[in-house]
Design goal:
With 259 residues, chain A is α+β, with helices and mostly antiparallel strands. Chain A is built from twelve helices and eight strands. Chain A has two domains: 145 residues, no CATH class; 104 residues, no CATH class. Chain B has a single domain, classed as Beta-Lactamase. Classes of the chains: A alpha+beta (259), B alpha+beta (134). Chain A: This is Transcriptional regulator.
Chain lengths: 259, 134
């Protein structure tokens, strides 16, 4: 396996090939990075979903100082996850639950924005280390299932990416707690990913709540605004920078229509 | 210190245990599976029990009443566990309480003839606590 920009294949196809080859390394898509070890997915990052550190520290599960201490001590040897457990900051179970939550969340977004700009860097490992490796096929199947789940709840993908505004629906005072907290952050400017970030929730789980709110008529996407992206993407081209939300929306629509 | 697999294997040591899962009740994903699943499909079991769990979690009517003092009202989870019985089995769901964003429960499939529902419910609650608290 060589370092090369690949053309012709989709991210799922390339992941399938890498799994069959028992490959180790990092596969970058337009919106995320898959870390593989011996053909299994050990970690995924995406600019659209909070990472493990965000989920743990912003919720108070691990103090920020404790998190950074673990990163400093064990980052260079790719054992930060192990270090969090060995130093007594998290149980193995808590680490696995939070890690898998972050992994599948990021994988959904790393695959959602279909694009051919794929790059595989052999041998590259993530500083977190292996916590609970997942077969590539499981990750791909789950991402497809999640897309279908969102579509069944409310088939408007604009909810996922556009700034959201509150609509004058009834029943907002009787929502389940999680959905109520999500609605409280809909302010006309925030996108789903920004709301997830404020809540320290996984973004996909926030999308589920927001699509349910949209189905109930309580939330609607704002008309296309001149919005800024949640995170700046260092390698993004000028065109993507000029009109981030429109481009994103188009790719999502294309991906959904291609199903 | 137990991880997901150790907790599930411990659940399988209960009398009459046929299968155990850790399931995310918002996405319907099985994060871990040990033993058999009703109908032979752990992923389908995860998705369907997740839907049950979600309905229970989101029911305002079944949530604890406002007692004006304990500070528990409005905190998740409003439901501790679900028990579903059928002619040949008990199905137990126990919600796992975490400080970070996590929406999971332990699921246990028990044979009705060999299982002890009261014991299994107590043990599953202990396993759910130990999974995240040590």
């Amino acid at each position: 396996m060589t370092t090369a920009a690949r053309t012709g294949g989709s991210a799922p196809e390339l992941l399938g090939t890498l799994a069959a080859d028992h490959a180790t390394g990092a596969l970058s898509t337009e919106s995320g990075i898959f870390y593989l070890s011996a053909g299994h997915v050990v970690h995924v990052e995406s600019a659209y979903s909070p990472d493990l550190g965000d989920l743990l520290t912003r919720s108070g599960a691990v103090a920020p100082a404790g998190w950074w201490d673990a990163v400093e001590r064990a980052g260079a040897v790719h054992r930060v996850g192990r270090q969090l457990v060995d130093s007594g900051r998290l149980t193995t179970g808590a680490l696995e639950l939070c890690h898998l939550g972050a992994l599948f969340d990021a994988a959904y977004f790393a695959l959602a924005h279909g694009g051919a700009a794929l790059r595989f860097r052999p041998g590259v490992a993530h500083w977190l280390g292996a916590v609970r490796p997942v077969p590539v096929a499981t990750v791909l199947r789950e991402s497809r299932r999640r897309r279908d789940l969102l579509h069944r709840i409310w088939p408007d993908p604009a909810v996922d990416t556009a700034p959201l505004i509150r609509a004058a629906g009834g029943g907002a005072d009787r929502l389940p707690p999680r959905r109520g907290r999500t609605l409280a952050l809909v302010d006309g400017g925030r996108t789903a990913a920004q709301i997830a970030s404020v809540l320290a929730h996984r973004t996909f789980h926030t999308l589920v709540e927001l699509r349910r709110l949209a189905a109930d008529g309580l939330v609607t996407p704002a008309p296309p605004p001149p919005a800024t992206p949640v995170h700046s993407v260092p390698d993004a081209g000028g065109a993507a920078w000029d009109e981030p939300d429109t481009a994103l929306l188009r790719r999502l629509l294309d991906a959904l229509e291609a199903l | 210190m137990p991880g997901i697999d150790e907790s599930l294997l411990e659940a399988m040591r209960l009398p009459g245990a046929r299968g155990a899962l850790v399931v995310d009740w918002i996405s319907g994903l099985a994060l871990g599976a040990v033993g058999d699943a009703p109908g032979g499909d752990a992923e389908a079991t995860a998705a369907e029990t997740a839907e049950l769990a979600r309905q229970a979690m989101e029911s305002g009517t079944l949530a604890p009443a406002d007692d004006g003092g304990t500070g528990t009202v409005g905190k998740e989870p409003p439901v501790e566990d679900l028990i579903l019985t059928s002619a040949d089995a008990y199905h137990l769901l126990r919600f796992v309480v975490t400080t970070f964003d996590s929406t999971v429960f332990l699921y246990l499939w028990l044979d009705r003839a060999d299982g002890n529902l009261a014991l299994a419910r107590i043990r599953l609650a202990e396993m759910a606590d130990r999974l995240v608290l040590g």
